[in-house]
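Reading a protein record of the kind used here takes little practice once its layout is understood. An example of such a record is reproduced below.
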Amino acid sequence: MADARRTLRASLRAKRRTISAAERARAARQIARQADRILHLHSGQRIGIYAATAEELDTSCLIALALRRGCLVYLPCIDPRLRVRSMRFAQITGAARALRVNRFGIGEPEALPLASARLLDVVFLPLVGFDRHGTRLGRGGGYYDRAFEFRRLRTFWHAPLLVGLGYALQEVERIAPAAHDVPLDLVITERGVIHCARVR
């Protein structure tokens, strides 16, 4: 399975790099509008969202929109205090959004108190690939799966809502789920919103 995932990941990343700058900008705006429409972003809502790398779907439009709506916006940070590769979240504001680049080339807030993933209401996740069952193919580090591992133990209460953000060309007919995978609830692409079926 690991070899198959590496091959699929490389193929999907190559396809994603073919998207033009104009298409990327248009998709980012469309996805921000769709997220606002379906999730009714509102004051006090605790939103986790990633700072996009050059390859990933740009989240700056969605971050700006969430801040305008009065959402509490949190970015993921790798917690250096823990030995196990662990991710927590730090709140940003419109006035304080300076980021430092971590060892993976991902922007994260500096020197802010870190909050647990359990605190959040909605989390927007980056993805390399996805299927309609909610299986997400990420970069391979496992940080999001570890951060939201507690969701796999729940039968009824599936909070926070996990929403993948990506381009339609990243959809795959079926990704064989690994034992540690935490499924997505929704995926939003430039073509619309996909409600993931929980068939495992």
